[in-house]
Amino acid sequence: MEIPIEEVRSEKPENQLPPKTIADKIKKNLFIVEVPSYGNKVFYSLGFLALTCLATLILSGIVMVFFAPTWWLTSSWGVFFRSIHLWAAQAFIAIIILHALVVFSTSGFKAPRRLTWMLGAAVFTLALGEAEFGYGLRGDFSSQYRPLQAADFFNGAFLGKLVNTLNFSQIYGMHIIDVPLAIAALVFFHYLLVKVRGIAKPYRSDIKPAMVPADHRKLFIRGGVLVALIILFAYISPSPFIPPAKIEQIAKDDPSLLAQTLMKEFTKTSDTATYLDSIDPYTYDTRKVYVSVPYEQYVAASHATDDLAAFNAETSDAQKTSIGQANAYFGKGGEISSQPNANPLIPAVSSLVVMAKSGLYEAVVDAENKNLNPTYSLRLLDDTGVLDAEATRLHISTEQWGMMRPERGVLPPGAWWLAPLGFLSNVALANDPNADRDGAAILGFLALLLIVFPYIPYLNRIPEKLHIAEIIWKR
User: The domain at 14-242+421-473 falls in which architecture?
Assistant: First the structure.
C-alpha cells in the first residue's frame, strides 16, 4: 500500500507561537498542540482514553472509599458506583492493550522513545495486579475465592511475605494508595515524554507527514462518549454480587462437615496444615488457631467442663484412640452434642460447631490474627471444600479456566486478561507439581520481556515486517 508523501508545513509551528490567553497557556503547557497528519485519528486518542478511564476509576474509587464497603454492597447508589468502577477497569485494560498494539505496529518504541514504552509497559503490568486486588475487595464470594487462588500464585513466586491477598487491610491499602500512586507517577512521566517529544513519526524516511493542529475538541468528545458508555453499561449490567460463604452457615447447613474439618485442623492434616510452600501466611499452628484458642474462650465464657484438657491429660495411645473414634463419629454424621462423652474430643469439637452456629467462632478465629485480617477464617473455609464446590457450580473454578469467566451470564465480562495464566495452569503446567512457582516465573519473565522489548535485537524489528503501520499512517 503506497503512502503519499505529504509536504511539511513551512510556517512557524503553533506550539512555538507566543500564547495569547490563559486558555492558550494551559493548552500549550498541558496538551500536545501539533501532531502528524494522522495524529487526530482514534488510534492516537487511545492514550487519552486510557487516562480518561484512570480518572473515572480514581473518582469512583474516592466516592466508594468515602462511604465504605457496606455502602457499595448494600446501597443502590453504592452498587452503581461499584459497577462504574468495574466497567472503567475493564475499559482501562482493554484500551491500554489497544494503545500498546498501535505503538507496537508503528514501531513507536524506537529510540528515543524506548523509555516511554517501558513506562507504559510497567503501567500495564501494575494495572493487571490492581484489577485483581479490586476483585479481592468486592465483599462477595469472589473476594474469598479469587484471593485464595492468588495467594497460591504469590506464595509460589516467594512473595507471600510481602503480599498476602487474604489480608483485606493490606490489599485495601495497596489498592487505594500504593498501586494507584505508582500508576499515576508512571503515567505522568509517560505523558511528559510524549509531550516533550511529540507523537512518534514514521520510521520510514520516505514518509514525511505534514504537521497539523491537534483536534482537542474531537479528543474530549471521544472521552465523553467513553465515560457515557461506562455509565450506561454500569446501569444495564451492574457488578454481580454472590453472597460470601460463612463458617456460621456451614455449621448450620452441614455441622458434620465443619466438625470433620476441625478434626483435620486438630490433627494437622488439613490442606492449610500441610501446605507445601511453608512460608507466610500459612506457617501457623492450625490446632492452636482453630481448636485450642477458640475452645479456651468457649470454656471461659460458658463455664463448661474443659474436655480438651481431659484429652491432653490422656496418654499418647489413648489420644490416638480418641482421635480415631472422633474421626469415625463425625465422618458418619454423628450428632453434634456438647454433652459429656467417654471420648472428650467429641464434646470439645461439638462445642466449637455450636459456637460457630452462633457466629462467634469466626469472630474469635479472626481476632487471633495479630494483623486483624480474615486469613484464618478464609483458610478454614477453603479447607472445608465449600469454596471449591461453589466455584465449580458457578463455572469459575481454576479447572474451568479460573477467574477469567464472569460470575453470571455474559456481562459484565470476567478477568479475560488472565487468559495467559489460565493457559499456564490448565494446559502448559497442568501436570507440574510446582505449577504456581513455575507459572509465576514464566509470567514474570514475560512481563520483563514486554518492558525491555525495545532493546531486544531482531525481535524489535518484527513490526516492520508486518506492514500494519501503513494502515494507521494513511491519512
Answer: Up-down Bundle (1.20)
